[in-house]
Amino acid sequence: MGLMSLTAIQLGNKIKSGEVSVSEAAEAALNDINKVEGTINSYVTVLSEDDIKKRAKEVQEGIKNGIYTGPLAGVPVAIKDNMCTEGILTTCSSKILNNFVPTYTAEAVLNLNKAGAVIIGKTNMDEFAMGSTTETSYYGATRNPWNTEHVPGGSSGGTCTAVAAEECSFALGSDTGGSIRQPCSFCGVTGIKPTYGTVSRYGLIAYGSSLDQIGPVAKDVADCAAILETIASYDPKDSTSVKRDDYDFTSALVDDVKGMRIGIPKEYFGDGLNEEVKTAIFKVVDVLKEKGAVVSEFDLGLVTYAIPAYYVIASAEASSNLARFDGVKYGYRAEEYNGLHNMLKKTRSEGFGPEVKRRIMLGSFVLSSGYYDAYYIKALRTKALIKREFDKAFENYDVIIAPASPDTAPKLGESLSDPIKMYLGDIYTISANLAGLPGITVPCGTDSKGLPIGVQMLGDCFSEKKIIQTAYSYEQSREYVRCSICE
Amino acid sequence: MANVISDETIEYVGILAKLELSDAEKEQAKKDMGSMLDYIDKLGELDTSDVEPMSHVFPVNNVFREDVVVNGDDSANILSNAPEEKDGSFVVPKTFD
Amino acid sequence: MSKEYETVIGLEVHVELATKTKIFCGCSTAFGGAPNTHTCPVCTGMPGSLPVLNRQVVEYAAAVGIATNCTINRFCRFDRKNYFYPDNPQNYQISQLYLPICENGGVSIETPDGGKKTVGIHEIHMEEDAGKLVHDEWGEASLVDFNRSGVPLIEIVSEPDMRSAEEVIAYLEKLRLIIQYLGASDCKLNEGSMRADVNLSVREKGSSEFGTRTETKNLNSFKAIARAIANERERQIDIIESGGKVVQETRRWDDAKEYSYPMRSKEDAQDYRYFPEPDLVPVIISDEWFDEIKSKQPELRDEKMVRYKEQYNLPDYDIDIITANKRLADIFEETVKLGSNPKKVSNWLMVETMYLLKEKGLEPDLVSFSPVNLAKLIKLAEDRVINGNVAKEVFEKIFDEDIDPEEYVKENGLMSVNDEGELRGVIEKIIAANPKSVEDINSGKLKAMGFLVGQTMKEMKGKADPASVNKILKELLGI
Predict the structure, then answer these.
(1) Count of beta carbons in the 10 Å neighbourhood of residue A36
(2) Which of the listed CATH numbers 1.10.510, 3.30.1330, 2.60.40, 1.10.20 matches domain B7-45?
(3) Domain that holds residue A33
């Protein structure tokens, strides 16, 4: 087992103690990338060995000089390709950004840099984070390391496969409608979508601005807590960034759920949920019950309205956020065109893939004259109702337990043909984005095909610690399972 | 399908979104948008008459910068990704006004 | 023309605010500069960049709203206005549609017949300016410079309350003075820091229905506005008279050719798909903040005019001229504060200053001398250290170079000669040399006095104190 089979904290400790050098850790990641990348395609960009070595040397010095003292110093990390990284190609897995090299770095990534993490590369994703399978990438689909005929989920597919296939020690993803929690479930890794406003969005290329959050993906809860503690910060450059009272998420790594009130929303376990997934989730509930948690069922009736509300809001925001990609300032520009408007149209039509165009069209339509109230405002009112329903639920519960997806990972090519069906797959994750809630996905077993199943835990806004504590407590009951490709 | 999207609508949305769709893409877009809207119409079942539209989940307000110049000349960086550049400016096909 | 028509005009006035930085980033708003040197990821719409609101923009916008009798919305927020154009880096403009900062105000203007009327203000909202497009003379291309992108604007939308170009100009003058007094903008039409778009329709006199309106843009001077209004009125009347229908559209005025043409192409749908800006949070103006903004509000022109009358007893004519420009009013008040006689200060500003401005072709805003130097000059003249002509000469130096008049007079030996002995000697010589004049005076032709005074001044190289000269001359001639 190589160094990449360790958790980030374990590896960080070895680096700190001098047992492993920063270069050795980085080399281990590169070796594992060389081994599996041809099959998995986790990365859009892997940094050059020279650049990585240079950075590793700098971090090694920094550790020696006491500049980098945190748990992630020297640990190799992969970054989802929708976060800007100075001097490193940042594509959002789109053709329209096929040559975009930002001159600034996303705040969350800066926070990692300041902690001494070593960036290995940029991970593949659904184009502009629009998708649930990582098949809409311009740079080819990413495959599930547990079974390469299956998708890894999305949109942070590359982020999750890079962690699962041990092509990095940990990674950053982003979650607009489940894009961290769902692929974590499909890939058997752990990830957190923090409360909206906890991690700065500065430098995150926006999809749905009111829904997007950056979060950690790693092998276990302890890693995720430590990473979140590192990347979360109040950022004056992001007006929606929230000044929190607590950033000490690792303090919640306590194996104790005595008296923890856990709610099971009935609507999340009805028709459409795969029986094997359902069984696996209830096993988690049993474990927590045994450990002293108080579990009961409740109604979350509005959940079916979350998907239509989400697709209206996210598409509307996306149609506007993606307007800036026009071939004027950066990125792809059509090679042949006739005049200004033709240049804009051709650039965008050639530069965006079908799913992105579909959402831009929908978003432009729901905002257009005569439809704004019927669709957009209606969706914002629905969002308010959903938020209200969660507020009420969290008066009675500390943690809500749910699946992360109705099923385990589908086969490649099965999802894209029917967009509505694909959108329905987001049913358990989307509400958290509408209501701004934090959520975590932890692996909890595999199905009969050997594909991972994840359990999702949702908390009230700013209650990351409760879901971290519950997830951590559950995690103590089982071993981390590596996927076969890592052997 | 309850929502039938006309050619004109697709044409119009294409102008708004600055997307030029092929005929096949247009047909697909009509179908997709129609079925999405059918699905979205589900929201009509909800009585939201007494609910304020919520754009921000948290009641955060008054986030300001002070009026102090902090940026210097960053033009080299700003222009570094320009598809076409001339004399420190971005170049676009001729505009008409 | 058989029927009589009435012109109905509303204005959309854009004013660039006098902040040091842009509305959503820390880039300078300074004018000029090489292309794209005042830009950053935010104001060039780089992916992942986010806006943060400049507090001063809110304060200026609210101040203008208070000064124009608007209701200040204590809860307001920004919306995105979506449209594609290369000077608009994000292809949306951050503006305010649903909840603008100010609403329902109005200002009073004087009408051409000397009456007064109120022009209603529908709303004032905050927004960002676009970049600049320059046509590349040599190629089939345009160049985009984002230095102006993100410069803060307020848009003041009037009600359709104006009926003539004169009223429009009176309204613009009024706004300009208010905003200049507030220090919120320099409001220069020719430099684009104040821009007016004219919404105009015509209707038969007596009708209560509005006609279809057009919006005319690109008006860079009061003269252009007046010409465009006359032109658009005629154009619409012609259409109606010939049985046609006015099309609601945006037109661009070409002042050199004196005509307007429609701006819209089939590529623009004019459907801006406004929605609340998710990257910015709402602005809430608390009572405390509101009071603070209000308390910082300077005295505006109308109030100043009343006070000048009461406090300084200046003639209306003087008040009108001095208060027509905030810079002049400021200099007036500061000079008076230094102890100078108000009417004397007023005279220097009204007469000499205005004369020099005109002669040098300058705007009153450019007056740059210090009140302390004007006060010193007035004192020198009052104390008869220098005479009137010398004072004017020294004032021009103050006007041009803001010199210290005390030092200047000393250095250049411009003090009046008040020494009785010296003057008496000179005058005695002049009398002796001009027996003809003396004879004239003695025979009652007092005009000849002037000649003798003139001769004396000439002898004294202009530095004699005229009062003293007169006094001694009369004494010596026994009159």
Answers:
(1) 21
(2) 1.10.20
(3) 3-258
